[in-house]
Design a protein that fits this description.
This protein is of the alpha/beta class. The protein has one domain: UDP N-Acetylglucosamine Acyltransferase, domain 1. Helix content is 16%, strand content 30%. The chain has one helix at residues 4-36; strands spanning 40-41, 46-48, 52-55, 60-63, 68-70, 85-88, 94-97, 102-104, 107-110, 113-116, 121-122, 127-129, 151-153, 158-159, 164-165, 170-171, 176-177, 182-183, 191-194, 199-203. Strand 19 and strand 20 form a beta hairpin.
């Protein structure tokens, strides 16, 4: 009979090798699809699972070096509900992700401008968007939001699981957004904020 600790060790090693293999295969396919969509990728980007990409005509998506995108629930044990989605929705939209940022099952929908800084950690199943997606006028609700507003997430921000970042928001550098928060107003640098609506709890 195999001792339990040896069995557990075997499965842990198997899992690590499976992740390495998944990363290698996914990165090749994801990079290929990104190039087909006209997305500009830096070097050493890791795709674990293949994201969904959509780039509207006349828009741009730029992902700089050493970013990581996890689109597979096997890898992130907190639970990834869907693949990462990176999209620009209309002509002139600009989505820029700076170096060394990481995402798990994130949805990013950009109609105007979204800038994500360096070393940003985005927890599983977060939504980041600069648009309401639909016009809020009753008569025009089936039409797109006519007034998207920039979203800026500065360097070293950590956004917790399941949070929603809405249009017009800036999150200052080094700040932490608690899990499940709805951020509809800007958050200053060097603080912890949480809740719906998201409010500053304390400085860090």
């Amino acid at each position: 009979m195999i001792p339990r600790f040896k069995l557990v060790s075997f499965f842990n090693i198997f899992r690590e090798y499976k992740i390495i293999l998944l990363n290698s295969i996914s990165s090749i396919f994801a990079s290929f699809w990104a190039i087909l969509y006209g997305i500009k990728l830096g070097s050493d980007i890791k795709f674990i699972g293949v994201p969904k990409f959509y780039r509207a005509k006349g828009s741009s998506i730029v992902v700089k070096s050493k970013c990581t995108f996890i689109s597979n629930s096997y890898v992130n044990l907190i639970g990834v509900n869907h693949r990462c989605i990176l999209s620009t929705l209309r002509d002139g939209a600009k989505l820029v992700i700076e170096e060394s940022s990481g995402f798990s099952g994130v949805t990013i929908g950009c109609a105007k401008r979204i800038l994500i800084g360096r070393n940003v950690m985005v927890g599983a199943n977060v939504l980041i968007t600069d648009t309401n997606w639909h016009n809020i006028s009753v008569q025009s609700r089936n039409l797109p939001d006519p007034y998207p507003k920039d979203v800026v997430i500065e360097d070293n921000v950590f956004i917790g699981y399941g949070s929603i970042i809405l249009k017009g928001v800036t999150i200052g550098r080094n700040s932490v957004i608690g899990a499940g928060s709805v951020v509809c107003e800007s958050i200053p640098s060097n603080c912890i904020a949480k809740g719906n609506p998201c409010r500053v709890v304390r400085s860090i």
